[in-house]
Amino acid sequence: MMVTRRDFMIDAIALAGAAGTMRAVAGESGFDKDSYDTLRKQLRAYYPSDGQGTNQRCKEPALAEAYEKIKQALEAWAAGHPGYDALDVRRESYRLLAEQFVPVLFTECPFYFEAGVNGGWSGDRPARLVNALCNRFYREQGLIPDEAFELLHARINQHFALCCGPFSDDMHHLPPFHAVMTQGFAGLRADTAAALAKCPANDPHGRKFLETALAGFDAVHAIQLAFAKRAEEILKHPDLKPHERRNMELVAVAAKRCPWEPPQTFHEGLNTLWFLREILGYADGLNCFALGRPDAWFIGLYRADLAAGRLTEAEARDLAARFLLQADCHYDGMVPVAHYSDHELEIPLTLGGCDADGKPVYNELTEMFIDAHFELGLVFPKMHLRIAQNSPAAYLRKIGDQLMKGHAVFALFNDDRTVPQFEAFGLPTDRSRDYVCCGCWDGNVDTWTDVDTANYMSMTRILELMIHPDPAVEKAVKIRVDSFADAKSLTEARDIYYRNFMRFFHSVLSEYTRWGRQNAKIFPHPLYSACLEGCLAKRRDTTEGGTAFRPRVVTLAFLANVVDSFCAIEKLCFEDKVCTLPELLAVVRANWAGPRGEKLRTKAMEAPYWGDNTESSNGLMKWFIDSVSRDLEGYENDCGGPFVLATWIYREFNYWGKQTKATPDGRRNGDRLAQGFAPSEYRCKAGVTTVFNALGSLDHTRLYASNANLSFEKTSMTPELFEAVFRVACKKDMHLLQPNCFSVEELLDAQAHPERHRDLIVKVCGFSARFIALSKEWQDEVISRHRLK
Description:
By secondary structure, the chain is of the alpha/beta class. The protein has 32 helices and 14 strands. Helix 8 (about 175-195) crosses helix 9.
């Protein structure tokens, strides 16, 4: 389908002015923020905001019209094929998606990939219509009883657990970059056809899976060629400016071959990253959440282009800038951050680290993308930078320098921990070294892994229920907790809590495993699966366990608050004996009210806490992690992979904290909870050395991922000090560091005079935002954070 009204992209030409140029050269590093105003306007017109929050929905009428046509055709097909299954309807959807596809191109942009779904994270995703037609199977085929859904929702609504999907995470998927860049979709289709030819007669389900995947590949090819055709049509327009014509010429040539064939130029490589994220979201209904590693993967293409005269350095910098701007213009960055998902775009970019041979990656492309992100004042894409103890000093200092300039957009992944972790799971060394950062804080190996990643378990909520009994809640979430009020020692109290937690933990995981298996009958991804290692050999979708490695990550949320609470119990009740355990719990239930409550709260706040590097807190944290890890050994998830542990957390530290009553660590009703592996903001008084030594005391091999959100006092830091901090973080075996760097005075001035601080960006948790765009509540939360010196 082509746009029938006067083309949106041609209409956008009227916006073009002197600012729109093919080569943007200004400043030492060659990026002039103002020179991309026209591209920004085109993109923001395509993804407009209603001013009420982050609105990522494409409003292009032609796409809405196509969606309705696909919807009506699929429903009519389903009515005529009452015995269909999910693969049947997915195959039909591939045909309709290709037939109705609207190829969107921007005259200010040389890239072709846009389908209006932001990688599947926004807008009406036509491919999700398959889910709607298959959801009836839950009841008709008795796949999952209503009682199971009711229990799942109760546990989520009561803030005990969270799963981004019905019993399995159906949101976070890593595009198969490696497969497509090495084979192209054509090579992958050929592999699928070969697997079909060898499919035994006694595997009709495997045959159907492979046949459906082939239809998906054909749809992708048709979509790619539609971009080439559209570019040729736009080139006929007489009002095109020279740089606009150059952009469309690039598309017209490249879209005829790539990514059906592997990329052969720097431009094609960059486009492939966006194409995979967007088109797989469009075709398979996935939420894709990564943009790959352009500096590691395309440095050879870039240098070959320069040597052959196909590209100049200025043109390459312009390509990098326009590549990044695609991510930052899906939303209005000045709309207040007030709700759960405001200013969340799952668009991370990976830079740095090591290559497949283990050599450090810090080259001209690394610098190009980091400099462009900073000088263009971008929040997105999320900058996920891989570091190691042997990372170049210039690289680490550049990160520190930008942090100190108010560009806190970095999540720093430790290669020294992450690479050996994947090797220990049996992944090849070269692929382990080539892992991609994704989501808010994930690191995974594309093509080899499909990770079920968003599963939170509140450890504090179990402790809360032991202190503040609520029979109605216990009944709703089917939990039984034993009291520890009569415990005669810390060990006894700790063990009672642990038994309560693990009883609930095992119940939740068993529900996930039992019912998560049904996801394959509702939401298969045959096109995506055929690109993943293992699925063709097994002739099974990734949702059926076809992928080579499919772990399920479970977050031990707010563990720091649990550790701090037991440290306080030990200190007050069993060491200093200033009160009995029942007396302490009574005061906590009263929200620390009255003179006695205030006195005991002061004592509790003086007790050891996670992050102070004492034997008490380090020992408790290690005991909990080691114990849960051991108890999970041998458990399989719904796809046959392992359960693995993490300590990351998103905005729940604030939102769930509001719903969590007082705890023995000194928290009052509704106070925020601890972020990831970071010490509690209420307790931490330590400096960076103490906190890092505490983090380093643990066996991080027990964890698939950990996340420390830490703030640094700007007046005490330098780029050189940050270099040392980052190396120590790697040496201490930490998985991930999300750093902030600010002074309270700076943030208070930004509150009072926002016009002076439009480019001041802070790391909130798994996302960054302009400080002046945060609500007053979130601003105050950031300001109140403990700053390490």
